[in-house]
Amino acid sequence: MVKQRNNFLLLAILAFAFAYRFFLLTMNTFPPGADIGLHESIIKSITSGKSDFFWNNYHMGGGLSVTNPGYHIFTAFVINLTGLPDYLAQALVASFFSAFVVVAAFLMVRRVWGELEAFVVAVLATFSASDIAILCWGGYPNIVTLMLIPLAFYLFLNRSKFSFNPYLAATAIVVGAIFLTHLFSGFVFLAITALTLMVGALFSKRTELTRKNLLYWIIPIACGVLLVSPYLTQIIPFYFGSESAIGGSVASMRQAVLETRLISLGIVAACVVPALLFAVFTKYKYKGVSWFPVILCVTWIVVPAAATQSYLLGLYLDYERFLYFLALPIIICLGLVIVSLPHAFERQERRLNLKEKVKSPLNRISKRTATASLIIFLTAFTLFTPLFSVPHFTIGSQLDSIGQVNFFQIMDKPKYEAIQWIKANTPSGSICVADAEFGWWLSGFGERPTLSAVDPQYLILEREFEPAKVATNLLKANYIIDNGLLEVKQKGVFASGNTHEISSISNTSYVASPFFWINDSQISLNYRNKGGIAHLTLAQFPNSDTHVVSNYDNAAFMVERINQQLSVTEEISIYEGVSYAKVSVILQANSSDVVFDWLHLPFTIRGVSATYPNSVVIIDSMLNEFTQLIFPQGQLGNTVSFQQNQDFYELVFNLEGQSNAEVSFFVGRKQFDPNYAISQADYWSNTVENNTHTYFERLSDVPLNYFDYKAALRKWNIAYILVRDPDSIQRFTTDPTFTLAFKNSEVAIFKVVKN
């Protein structure tokens, strides 16, 4: 009767865990996260019959794929079997395996510590914040292996319950499935197992690990690896060969990983606590428990924690994902703490009663009730800690499960409508461009090769970086030049807002930091035509021509505008190895009746301004950086004045009635030491003066890099660009290179006009 009741309770917990996860994944109709699009592109590539496990027809324009196919093979079978919509079938499969993490944890804990502990752990695992987070961002293969790993450990620890052949078959299949589903999870599993066996063999008297038992672990693992060895022998060279970027071969990826994905040593150090608690519980409470499973749980914590620091070995990965392996052993530790506390209170009560020779008024039944109540209370209290995700339904919260789903939610009906339009109205093989998250959905569910603007820390193959950069550049600007120190971005004459943007490139960040903006539409000119005073802004020119001019050591954006009276050429030049850009405006009269009086050049910089001889300095005390405008010919205060307005700064050039004129200055960004700036009275005057003599010094040998959007469209044969940003939509709408093919409330689809 008790066994049936416990089985029913476990089944109820499993059913709730599945329903809870499936609800979270489908509460907004479409599952959250971007990675589901990647999975869909792999499923479609596999089922197309025109690809193998190492080629993705759609992801990042199509090409080599190292995403392990175990989950995708299983999900493709479920889709064909049920006929469910693909995104719903993926949510179903992911919820199923995630729910069975609860069962795997229950079986393992019951085998080692007891049934009560197993039920507490099962309840905690049902609300694991780690598992919910993985589901929310779409790490479905990860969740499958996080179920298979404790299942494998349970089978290893429960060897005596099986005859050898069924045991070998079951464990080999589970081990093979781990490697086929997620290779790096397989490496973590292998490292945990190897370290456990090494320590267990070293202390064999305590762990009771005999040579025979050692073989019962080693043989199934070897058979499982052998089972999938044809796949592993092909995929491993891709991961660690020239095609891979995890060795740091791509500088932008290496820098991005180190900047955004490092795990604090404090978190690693905190992992010592549950590791020690396992040893304490075994020694003082679970004295009959073998030390071997305890060592297993300790190494289950130690190995992933140490792996978060693998950049020290020259491996550049998403280190945060190693933390997901820590969740279950820490939950097991918490379950042991919860069950142990009532017994600790009871022992303390006995000691007090014996000391005072007072008989406890509580009878045996009431003690059992009190113990159960305390365990329930502690379990419920623990569920509201950051390690767990329960539905608070708090608006704007990202700590509860509902908040996590909404935070990672990418897809909705308007976006999915745009994807379906692409699928139905474009030729198969049409190459598309989209932003990162939406692009992954588009490639999979739209079944079109897609260049997605993905940040470099989320890429793993060298071939993926160029299409990601092309997509990023297309969506943010028409022309880009950089020299490794500066980046100049020109959004094009069809853009509104700041059409020229100069950014500094730092050795400590993969993201260029913009510091200087010029809005073409705000530049104005006062001139005289036949003696009459006239005023003109650059936005009033009917036509313009933008192009890049390059020489052996410099390159420049040139925007040429012309009408019957005059022509204006804007030019922003950067030089190899130089940290200052040259900004020029060249004016030429097309009639002898035209002369120029004043040029107003507004610009935007963050900070507080100060003027020095031949320089204007704008100091950003928040970032400890300053921007310096240098006038080499000494015009500042003579033919150039600097003005500060409420929302922008402005340079006013006196053109002195000339019919041909050229104005120019240099602009660059530097860091400063706030301690010296405060303590030394002449710090700024010396710094500014020194820069006026050294601004043109060559600081690096990095060659110039160019981006021309029309050249990129031709090179990659791009057919459609899907845009969600309103400012970018306006830029594409007014550019005759594109025609608007589809638009709804959230997405605009532009077709590239083939010249």
Number of strands: 25
Low-confidence stretches: 393-397
Radius of gyration over C-alpha positions, nearest whole angstrom: 33 Å
Structural class: alpha+beta
Beta-strand level of the residues, as a percent range? 15-25%
Number of helices: 26
Chain-averaged pLDDT: 89
Distance linking N and C termini: 79 Å
Cα shape: elongated
Helix content: 40-55%
Question: Brief description of this entry?
Answer:
By secondary structure, the protein is an alpha+beta fold.
What does this 3D model show about the protein?
The longest helix is centred in the middle third of the chain and has 30 residues, at 327-356. The protein contains 26 helices and 25 strands. Helix 9 runs antiparallel to helix 11. The chain has 755 residues and is an alpha+beta fold.
Topology overview:
Layout: H1 2-26, H2 35-47, E1 55-56, E2 63-64, H3 70-82, H4 86-112, H5 115-126, H6 129-137, H7 140-157, H8 164-181, H9 183-202, H10 204-207, H11 211-227, H12 229-240, H13 251-260, H14 265-270, H15 272-284, H16 291-307, H17 327-356, H18 364-382, H19 401-408, H20 413-425, E3 431-435, H21 436-445, E4 450-453, H22 465-476, E5 479-482, E6 486-490, E7 500-504, E8 513-518, E9 524-529, E10 532-537, E11 544-550, E12 554-562, E13 566-575, E14 580-589, E15 594-603, E16 608-612, E17 615-620, E18 625-630, E19 640-644, E20 649-658, E21 660-671, H23 674-679, H24 683-694, E22 705-708, H25 709-715, E23 718-723, H26 726-733, E24 738-743, E25 748-752
Parallel strand pairs: 3-4, 3-23
Antiparallel strand pairs: 1-2, 5-6, 5-22, 6-7, 7-8, 9-10, 9-15, 11-12, 12-13, 13-14, 14-21, 15-20, 16-17, 17-18, 18-21, 19-20, 23-25, 24-25
